């Protein structure tokens, strides 16, 4: 058998010397490339692969993308979709993250060649955005901000909180369990639907670390209800920690029921905590605003080191603050007429391609546990529900939502430059 094709399987050293593989070698390292070559040779020996295809097969087996994360076009109409990574970063933030990926002066003063306060440029931007705060601090996320405050100000002491504000954030995480995990004790006051200033006043004493005011961001209690505002709570002789969650730094007219950091600080909150990747439209982060002394206490607490954010987060946060036109803001403010026009164009193109598509009113929502009950009026393209699955499996992956037995593509959170990519994805899914 002199013409046994297996004799033509190229040798490992010859394959590894091929320039196409040396390129791969630089990206994937020697081990992964050798393994891919060996696997391809093995398949050729087993007769499953033509010996001439060993090298292309080895190359194809190496991962094309550096991660297995898949880019998703969010056509759900949910602006802050927790399962899709909450706020998408702005172009400025992406640029800042890329720039910060190498060596940067994150904790270094280039003028003097000595150590400097970590993330000082991001912190300065955050202070400038909320002048009512004497100082600011940044940790890993909103939950970390609450844990840090509870540990630093109320360990082995009591946190006074209204029963109506004991929120479950999502994925089974509950604020009261988070708080007690720090060693603080909870002193719940009021009834489920109503709490009064005297409930707080009666509970406050020598054991009190602080009063916690939580914005019940992801639910609403309606009917016979009452809560106590920060202004009144601030009259009691203990600190008031206010968790706004949503990350609004200033009032947002579109969201009148969402509290903001500036207002609650002005009303007398000692510390305000918020998330970076909700309405602020930045990276995942926990933002802490307060007077200089209390922020210094938080910053100096040993736990602060365990909760600190990396340079990429600080870079993205700073860029988000300095150039606040974010995809989140654009999606939130997308006007109804514009959405109708884009949906109309998309539907018309699909119909021209022989696909059943109509335009239908579609309410977007803020999501991410913010502004429950608020509808953002808009329009969507209505398609056959059978398209949901192939669109999820496509590249790019397009996620819409099922409503009334139809599959809706809501363009609110789709940047207009991607409308074409959505149309192509639907056409591919139908072909
Ligand atoms: C979202 C939220 C949190 C948790 O913030 P993360 O950044 O998700 O950790 C805490 N409290 C409130 C009121 C929230 O809305």
From TrEMBL:
EC numbers on record: 2.9.1.1
Broad EC category: transferase
One family name in Pfam for this protein: Se-cys_synth_N
Alphabetical keyword list: Cytoplasm, Protein biosynthesis, Pyridoxal phosphate, Selenium, Transferase
Pathway per the UniProt entry: Aminoacyl-tRNA biosynthesis; selenocysteinyl-tRNA(Sec) biosynthesis; selenocysteinyl-tRNA(Sec) from L-seryl-tRNA(Sec) (bacterial route): step 1/1
Cofactors that this protein relies on: pyridoxal 5'-phosphate
L-seryl-tRNA selenium transferase N-terminal domain mapped to chain residues: 6-45
GO molecular function: L-seryl-tRNA(Sec) selenium transferase activity
InterPro entries registered for this protein in UniProt: PyrdxlP-dep_Trfase, PyrdxlP-dep_Trfase_major, SelA-like, SelA_trans, SelA_trans_N_dom
Subcellular location: Cytoplasm
Reactions catalysed according to its record: L-seryl-tRNA(Sec) + selenophosphate + H(+) = L-selenocysteinyl-tRNA(Sec) + phosphate
Modified residues (N6-(pyridoxal phosphate)lysine): 278
Primary location recorded for the protein, binned into one broad class: cytoplasm
Family in the record: Belongs to the SelA family.
NCBIfam families (UniProt xref): selA (TIGR00474)
PANTHER family: L-SERYL-TRNA(SEC) SELENIUM TRANSFERASE
HAMAP family the UniProt entry points to: SelA
Name assigned to this protein: L-seryl-tRNA(Sec) selenium transferase
Species: Micromonospora fluostatini
Phylogenetic lineage: Bacteria, Bacillati, Actinomycetota, Actinomycetes, Micromonosporales
Designated gene of the protein: selA
